[in-house]
Amino acid sequence: MLGQHDPQHWLFNIRHDLIAQNDGPFKYHLDRYKYATRYQSNPDCHRAEALKILENIDKILQEGFFLHGARPGLTDAAIAPFVRQFAATDPDWFASVPLVRLQEWLQAFLTSPLFGRAMCRLAPWQEGDAPILLH
To answer: How far is residue 74's CA from residue 90's CA, in Å, rounded to a whole number?
Structure first.
């Protein structure tokens, strides 16, 4: 538990406001952009609204490489997977958007060893298999 052992200081300087914005308005617009058919929504409208939120994050990232400053933290880990989904919906368009700091931040997240370990695909566990321990 991070509350008992936080060697990378993920709990330092948590941006609850950014996490709430991500989990509320950004997620709302992301879903209606990414799954426009399911929601019967206008994807361009929702992409534009989500982009406004990402522009704010880009401004914050101009103050430090991560949302916590010089090192990643819980806020980065909470938000980056959703930005990844947004970027992956139309990668060519996302690459053309002038959000340089956000794109660098996302790339750092995607190429981090922690993300690589988290995204490692394992075969589904079957009864009788040895336990899998993640370090």
So the answer is: 26
- Which residue, 28, 15, 91, is CA-closest to 57? 15
Note the pLDDT of residue 53: 98
What is the three-class DSSP state of 116?
helix
Decide if 86 contacts 33 (C-beta within 8 A).
Answer: yes
Question: Between 106 and 112, where is the model more confident?
Answer: 106
Q: Characterise 9 by phi-psi region: left (phi > 0), alpha (psi -120 to 50), beta (else).
A: left
Residue 61 and residue 101 in contact, taking contact as beta carbons nearer than 8 Å:
yes
From the centroid of its chain, how far is CA 39? 22
C-alpha to C-alpha distance for 102 and 123, rounded to whole angstroms: 33
The backbone torsions φ and ψ at residue 64, rounded to the nearest 5 degrees and listed phi first, read -165, 160
Handedness of CA 54, 55, 56, 60 (dihedral sign): positive
**Average of pLDDT values for 36-54?**
98
**pTM score, whole prediction:** 0.85
What residue ranges in the chain does DSSP mark as E strands?
A: none
Overall average pLDDT of the 17-31 stretch: 98
pLDDT at 119: 67
